[in-house]
Design a protein that fits this description.
five-stranded mixed β-sheet; alpha/beta; about 350 residues; binds 5'-O-[(R)-(carboxyoxy)(hydroxy)phosphoryl]adenosine; binds zinc ion
Length: about 350
């Protein structure tokens, strides 16, 4: 069976065709994965402007879907279902994908599957590597999220912890902005950091020990926090009145990156130990980070723990991961009605 996936939760309009392989160990294959990025549009404003994003999704969605079907050599009648990101994300952007998917499913008489954006990021690991040894602890780390999930059974995701304030990618984007590096900040800091001394600037690490009043059901000691770190960089930059040299900027970037990556890796492996994980994975936009990828691999080898990452093209937002998560859900017998609505704050359960 082939499924059409649609993703419009933020600033990428994407459509993909994914098909089942019949191989239980590596269940899905990508036939196409078309991504129209809006980065050049939002760069001018230093971040994603929601209203511009939804308008651009409307302009792009038809062409992107046509191209995804075309590249996959697939017609509407070859499809078995349509999967779409229901949330979380920007509501205006989500609505474009949800409305399109509902209309397409109705017109082509196909079942509709609603997908959680983070389930998509988690399943990007399976799409890339095949089924993970379970239980697995997966860190989803992007511009909007920094959360640890325990996957005990395929398709069942249990939230273990999340950030109390900024997402790691958001911290990258904000720090890059105050260093004058432009948008999106993650790749820019990543590149600059390779030339800097990661011990040059003393920056604080936040280690939370108490539960969050807003989420008393979670123990809280695996939670993340990045706003203090961002403020520390801001203070450091303000204390330097003269424009900073390329070398100084590289030192800040490297020092910031060391603190972020260390805190992500530490919590991930702490959680893996606590829950007896047989594998760990990192997904989401920030999983493209070179230091994070290297440290995951190195730490995994030291602990003899299998580690998983998506390819660079599957790490940032894309519809192939939504199609994969949609296939998983469809095979579990879960479809959506045409009453489906976008949900900006959809919980993953
Ligand atoms: O998953 P994604 O495409 O969109 C969201 O769902 O947020 O993630 C985008 C985020 C941005 O914050 C971007 O700065 C960050 O991923 N990012 C990186 C790198 N590449 C992208 N952060 C650090 N290092 C990178 N190489
Ligand atoms: Zn994402």
């Amino acid at each position: 069976m082939r499924i059409l996936g649609i993703e419009t939760s933020c600033d990428e309009t994407s459509a993909a065709v994914v098909e089942e392989t019949g191989d239980a160990a590596k269940p899905w294959a990508i036939r196409s994965n078309v991504i129209a990025s809006q980065v050049p549009i939002h760069r001018e404003w230093g971040g994603v402007v929601p209203e511009l994003a939804s308008r651009q999704h409307i302009r792009d969605i038809c062409g992107v879907v046509d191209r995804a079907l075309d590249e996959a050599g697939t017609g509407w009648t070859d499809l078995g279902a349509v999967a779409v990101t229901q949330g979380p994300g920007l509501v205006g952007s989500l609505l474009v994908g949800v409305s399109f998917a509902k209309a397409a499913a109705a017109a082509a008489a196909l079942p509709l599957v609603a997908v959680h954006h983070l389930a998509g990021h988690i399943e990007s690991l399976v799409l890339q590597n095949g089924e993970l040894p379970l239980p697995s602890v997966v860190l989803v780390v992007s511009g909007g999220h920094t959360s640890l999930y325990l996957v005990e059974r395929a398709g069942a995701y249990r939230l273990l912890s999340r950030t109390r304030d900024d997402a790691a990618g958001e911290a990258y984007d904000k720090v890059a902005k105050l260093l004058g590096l432009g948008y999106p900040g993650g790749p820019a800091i990543d590149r600059l950091a390779t030339r800097g001394n990661d011990r040059a600037v003393a920056l604080p690490t936040t280690r939370l020990t108490h539960a969050d009043r807003n989420a008393p059901e979670l123990k809280g000691d695996l939670d993340f926090s990045f706003s203090g770190l961002k403020t520390a960089v801001l203070r450091y930059v303000r204390a330097h009145e003269s424009p900073m040299s390329e070398g100084e900027l590289a030192d800040i970037a490297a020092s910031f990156q060391r603190v972020v990556v260390t805190s992500l890796i530490e919590r991930l492996f702490d959680a893996a130990r606590r829950y007896g994980a047989k594998s760990v994975g990192i997904a989401g936009g920030v999983s493209a980070n070179s230091r994070l990828r290297a440290e995951l691999k190195e730490r995994g080898e030291r602990r003899e723990m299998p580690t998983f990452l998506p390819s660079l093209s599957l790490s940032t937002d894309n519809a192939a991961m939504i199609a994969a998560a949609g296939l998983r859900k469809f095979r579990a017998g879960v479809t959506a009605s045409f009453e489906l609505n976008a949900d900006a704050a959809l919980p993953l359960a």
